[in-house]
Design a protein that fits this description.
5 helices, Ferritin, mainly alpha, binds magnesium ion, 78% helix
């Protein structure tokens, strides 16, 4: 059993994971419109992962006897202005997610809610991976440049993501 307060906080993160999916789906559509299909595929996979994250919260809340409360999913809310910019926007977003997970972790600790702490650990580790992955892409863009051939090479690399 988890507290009402914790249930609400987890529901809020469930919602935010679907918002993240929406953001990445928007990025996929934008990349498609530029003809960068490798990028588009990468962002679609990213969107799918975010929905899976949302479902992890869904199942955890239910396992703990809490009530899943689904709210409106917010629109991406950012303007996509360039292909390279998508990765900067993604990193900014993931840093926000990392902070949110850290806040949840702090709340669980405060309540001596060890089960939720343990559940959230997976997400903390996942965020390290997410940020590292984006930093790697941004590093490649810094080396190769943010336009032209560099983008096409990166499109080929990202297109290989399963
Ligand atoms: Mg996520």
């Amino acid at each position: 059993m988890i507290s009402k307060k914790m249930t609400a906080a987890l529901n809020d993160q469930l919602n935010f994971e679907f918002h993240s999916a929406y953001l990445y789906l928007g990025m996929a559509a934008y990349a498609s419109s530029l003809g960068l299909n490798g990028f588009a595929g990468w962002f679609k996979t990213q969107a799918k992962e975010e929905m899976e994250h949302g479902m992890k919260f869904y199942h955890y809340i239910q396992e703990q006897g809490g009530e899943v409360a689904l709210e409106d999913v917010a629109a991406p809310g950012v303007k996509f202005i360039s292909a390279a910019g998508l990765f900067e926007q993604s990193l900014t977003h993931e840093k926000k997610v990392t902070q949110r997970i850290a806040n949840l972790m702090a709340a669980a600790k405060k309540e001596d809610d060890y089960a939720t702490e343990s559940f959230l650990l997976w997400f903390l580790n996942e965020q390290v991976e997410e940020e590292a992955q984006l930093a790697d892409i941004l590093q490649k863009l810094a080396i190769g440049g943010k336009t032209g051939n560099s983008l096409l090479i990166l499109d080929g690399i990202l297109g290989q993501r399963k």
